[in-house]
Amino acid sequence: MTPEASYDVIVVGAGPAGSTSALYAAKSGASVLFLDKKREIGSPIQCAGFLPDASEVQALLRDSTLPDTLRNYPDSCVLQRINTQRIIPPNCSIKEFAVRGAVLDRRRYDQFLAEEAARAGAELMVKTRVTKIEDTTVEISGIFGKHRIKAKAIIGADGPNSLVARSKGLVLKPESRETSVAIEYQVRNVDIDPSALEMYFGKDFVPGGYAWIFPEGKDRANVGIGIRSGMAERGISAKEYLHRFMRDHPFAGPKLKNGIVMNVIAGIIPVNGAPKRTATCDSLIVGDAAGQIFATNGGGIPPAMIAGKIAGETAAEFAAGKCRLDEYDRRWRAQFGSALETSVQARQLMDGVMKSDTLMNTAFKLISPEQMKVMQCGKLPAPVRLGLQALNRGKK
Q: pTM score, two decimals?
């Protein structure tokens, strides 16, 4: 790389959002550099890795155009196919519904996505950290040396603490910023249903969130929790809640009692939606950096990749002088912005009832399995909204 190197588009971060952005920018004819601070794409693993089938995503997000890599990926990326999702409220009165999808090997899937982008012409640099962003100049440092590189457009796909977002003023106001702390274990020797996702609720085990068991094979699972520290007992860490869940939960405990922990995964999940602006005149943000996560279940892969396709195509058009970069903001909101906002509203309504297991049991009794399914992707059926509002009024 020459000292005065320049590209049409620089993408910071090579997770699903970044790699999809790089892929579609390159396919649209732009010169693309994409960077990742990790020495190996996809490692360490950063989420539980459930990906609904593309047909499920399309049915719930009808206005969205899905990237090819969300529809088609190698079988080698799949740890376990899923056909059922179970919701377990505090009283363990189980509700379930059919859902098609896969628990992914995130390391392999992320590498597949990055490779697709590179094959399309994007230049990938791993173990390379962005140290400074000044206007459209990006300073990098890593295994390939230190460089200052110019770009026409910068895409920030660099996670919830995005340097691009902070450098460009594209962050939620402090009073609106809220995250969930997630900790999860890859566990072996567990007695689980290998074709079913399970989500558990209850303030004694997962205050302000849920616990999960996601199968990774016959006797293998990703077991984790996502909690909001503001709703947790003082002095109790996320790790302690996870251990309590695995040891003491009446339904999950017996399944997990002989589990062998092989890997620890931790991270933060933004749960308050996107900032008012996700683009400036020269930069945009995508995925976790833009809060593009469904707050009802923490699902981030589909919206990150849908937005990544839009980001890459828009950045390439911008570099060719065919549109303004803030067109990205309008485009992604038209495809799934209302669903994202509704998921935040649903989460806020659920916050009230999550403070009481009795209220939670009542809420889950009111919500049908079909309604639970559509709530996963940002729908809030009117009867559910009215029911949750009534429960919240009743507790005051």
A: 0.94
